[in-house]
Amino acid sequence: MEKIIISKNLYAHPLSMNRIILIFSLSLVLAGCSASRQRRLHKNIVTIINSRQFKNQFTGYIVFDPITKDTISNYNSEKYFLPASNTKIFTLYTALQLLADRIPSIKYISQNDTLYVEGTGDPSALHPFFKDSTLLHFLKKAKNIALHLNNFDGNSFGPGWAWEDYDHYYAPERNSLPLYGNVTFISNIDSLRIIPSYFKDSIVFSTAAKKRKLHQNVFYFDSLRKDTLEVPIITYANLTKELLETATHKKIELVSEMPAGKKEVLYGILSDSLYKRMMYESDNFIAEQLLIVSSSTLNDTINSTIARDHILVNQLSNLRQPPRWVDGSGLSRYNLFTPESMMIVLQKMYAELPKDRLFSLFPAGGKKGTLIDLFKGNPKPYVFAKSGSMGNTYCLSGYLLTNSGKTLIFSFMNNHYRQSTNNIKKEMTSIFELLRDTY
């Protein structure tokens, strides 16, 4: 009945029908203009991609409007690329899906007069940057402490990591209860300072190229050096026990298993503080441990593979190009991701998180993190993205704000080039500015 009344009104007032026709015609014109604009924009971007700078390499990208669901431009977006630290975007998404507002620091059971403790992989315990003492204060209250370290079912290093990086700050070992970031901090600004002090007698003054013995926690430090040296330690159960004993001033017993019963969880620092450190500084250690912590919410046995498989089978089962995803940091050259898959994960986070919080987790062009000197806005940042760099590789994926007030999602991957990375960044800047100014 309602449709009949509307129909009569239309015939009774010819101008109403004319108005409808006019609006419909204008919408077609506007849609055509928008499509034409997108075609021109895509053509201009492809022209840059086909220029000399990108000629002798493998490049792929996708630019997507999350509101209209339009792909603005793409090129090789379904091809697989080595992502480097763009892998951390998948790690961030995993942590956001599986972890609470605060990081689970340990699991424990109190039985009689003994506190039984096992790690969750929390990377913040006694870390000099975070200065979180949650674990320390908790353990100091216990009469007797029993430490279970056999719940980590993984390797110290990720698959495909370069063995010669063992003494570099960016490649600490992975384990269930990391302490001090699994790194020794050595500085000689006013006087020699070592964190943890446990290793004060393990420092050898030397100008050797390597900063630690391959199979021993003996560290080499140039006495003339004035900045802080960070050197990964070799982790093992007795060392973890002794470091905790030194910090708590309590005797600790190592046990082979936890007693039967429900495990309680001690929560530590705010999760976002770890996410920001991982994303701003591209901290590989935090990335690796976050996947392990995420797995602790799914299983008593912790392993980054558990978290990765869970996310791919559940939240990311719709990816048209499932990644080869082997670690949390992107250190491995075994990782393979497509720009399209990267964009889909970014789109999911954009839909699920408040924009202010989401953008606060990413480096801002010209303002903070690894992008502090790149993609500068005038006066405000317009790029919020995670970079990924290693030999012959530079990738950048994230969010771009246009002058018209729109947000675009992009993933831009460059592999196998032999030229300067600065040249790649310069050409990418011209593409991003084109998107910012014309969309």
From TrEMBL:
UniProt keyword annotation of Hydrolase present: yes
Which GO molecular function entries does the Swiss-Prot or TrEMBL record give? Answer: serine-type D-Ala-D-Ala carboxypeptidase activity
- Fetch the SUPFAM superfamilies from UniProt: beta-lactamase/transpeptidase-like (SSF56601)
Q: What class of enzyme is it?
A: hydrolase
Q: What is the name listed in the Swiss-Prot or TrEMBL entry for this protein?
A: D-alanyl-D-alanine carboxypeptidase
Q: Does the entry feature the keyword Protease, yes or no?
A: yes
- Identify the InterPro entries for this entry: Beta-lactam/transpept-like, Peptidase_S13
State the source organism's domain of life.
Bacteria
The entry's family comment says:
Belongs to the peptidase S13 family.
Report the EC code(s) recorded for this entry.
3.4.16.4
UniProt-listed PANTHER family: D-ALANYL-D-ALANINE CARBOXYPEPTIDASE, PENICILLIN-SENSITIVE CARBOXYPEPTIDASE A
Q: Which UniProt keywords apply?
A: Carboxypeptidase, Hydrolase, Protease
